[in-house]
Fold:
Amino acid sequence: MHSTNRRAESATKEGGVVDDRHSRRAPRARSRKAALATFALAGALAAALSAGCAGDSGKTAVELDPSNPTTITVWDYYNGAQQASFDSLVSEFNSTVGKEKGIYVKSKTQGSVAELEKAVADSAAGEVGADEMPDVFSSYADTAYNVQQQGKLVDLTDYFTPDELSNYVPDYLDEGRFDGDSSLYLLPVAKSTEVTMLDETDWEPFAQATGATIDDLATQEGIAVTAKRYYEYTDALTPDTPGDGKAFYGRDSLSNYFIIGMKQMGVELLAPDADGKAQVNADKDKVRRLWDNYYVPFVSGYFDAKGKFRSDDMKTGDIICYTGSTASAAYFPDQVVDDDGTHQVDYRILMPPTFEGGSAVAPQQGAGMAVAKSDEQHEYASCEFLKWFTEKQNNLRFATAASYLPVRTDANSVEELDGAIQNENLSVNPKTRDCIAMTMESFDGVELYSTKSFDNAYAARKALDHSLDDKATADKAAVQAAVAAGQSRDEALEPYVGDAAFEQWYASFCHQLQAATEGTE
Structure:
C-alpha cells in the first residue's frame, strides 16, 4: 500500500462534499490518539458496568407501536455519494431496527447548505409558506445555536445516557453544548479538518530545478516564498513571454485562514462571552502577517482562485497546491487539462501549514444533527434513529462515503477505517482513504479548534470569507490591467502591497468584522 504521497491501491469510490466551517479545541495534556484510546476504553467500561442498570435513553423508553410506526422527517443538505450513503442507511434502518421498534424515517435533501439553513430558519420563525419543522435536521453549530436560542431544540441528554454519550469524541460533543453546561443540542455525525493537497507530478521538475522541498510547505511563510519561486520558475520557461509565470497555491476557506491563523499565533480572533456576544481580537501585527502571506502573494500572481473550489483550479493547472477540507480529497484530479494538453498527475497529502513560530492548530468542522422539539414520541424516535446511525460500523460507513472522519472514539483509527472498507466492501476513493488515514495518524501533533457559538456567527464568518478575498481578487485584476497597459509589474504592484494599502484595508476589516458580530452590518 502506498503512503499518502501516492495513490493507494485499495478500494475506489467517488464522493466527498466540501461544506465545512467550524472547528473545536482538542485536549493538549496528552496525545490525541492516546486520549481517543482512553475515551474508548472508558466508554466500554462504563457500558459494561451499567449493563442491566441503565435504560435505552436518558428518559424511560417510550412505547412505540410497530404496527403503527412513528414517522420522523429528516432534512439534510447531502448530495452525491454522501446522499447515496445516507439514503442506504435510512433504508436499512427502516427495514430492520426501525421496523422492529415502530419508527419510520423519511429523509429529504434541501439542496445546498445555504438552502437547508434558510428552510430551517423559515420553519423555526413560522414564516408564511414555510414547511413545518422537521424532527431532525443537519446543522452547523451557528444555525443550531440560533434555533436553540428560540427554545426549539431538544436537549439530547434527555434521551442519551452518559454511557451512550461516552462513545463520542468529547471535543466533538462540546461543539453542541451551547449553554456552558452538560446540555447537548447538536449530535456529531461526521467531522473533517483541513489538509494540503499537492500535484506531485508538476512539483517534481520544479523542485529538482530550484531545490524546493516538501518541508518548505509546512509554514504559511514557506508556502508564500515557494509560490514566488514557482512563479519565477514557470515565467523563465517562456523567455519570449515575460511576466507569464503561473500561480502555485490557493485555499478554499479564508475564514479558516483567519480564525486558525490567529489561533496558531496565540490569539482567539472571535471570543464569545457568557451572553453569546463575540469579542473581536484583531491584533494588528498578527493580522499583518495574514495579509503578507495571502493578499500580497495573491495580487502578485503567486496565489490564485478561479473556480468554485481550489480543486477545480487544480484540474486546469492554474495552481498545483491548495489547502482545503479533507472532504475535498476525492475531487483532486487524476489528470490536468491546460493550455499544453492533458497529462496524468499523482498526489501528495500534507498537513495544513502553520505560521512560523506558532502552534500546530487545524480546524475541526462538519455538520451535526439536531432534534426539534415536538412531542415525546417523535423526540424519542428521532434519538433512537440517531443512536443507530452513529453506531460504530454505521458511522464508519457514512463517514468514509462522505470523505469525513468518524465521530466515535472506537472508530478513529486507521485499523478501523481499513477494516470497515474491507469488511463492508466499501467503494472508497484511494485519495479519500489516504487523506482520512493521514489525518488520523497526525492527531498526536495537532490541536483541533473551533470558535464557540455566538450571536451572528454566520455573518462574522462571511465577513472573514470576503473582506480580504474580495479585495485581493479585485486588486489582482487591477494589477493585471495596469501591466497590460504598459506598466512594469513592480510599478503596477506598488499601490497595493505597501503599508498604506494595509492600513486602509485593516481599518475597513475591523469595522466590517465588528459590525458583523454586532448584527449591524
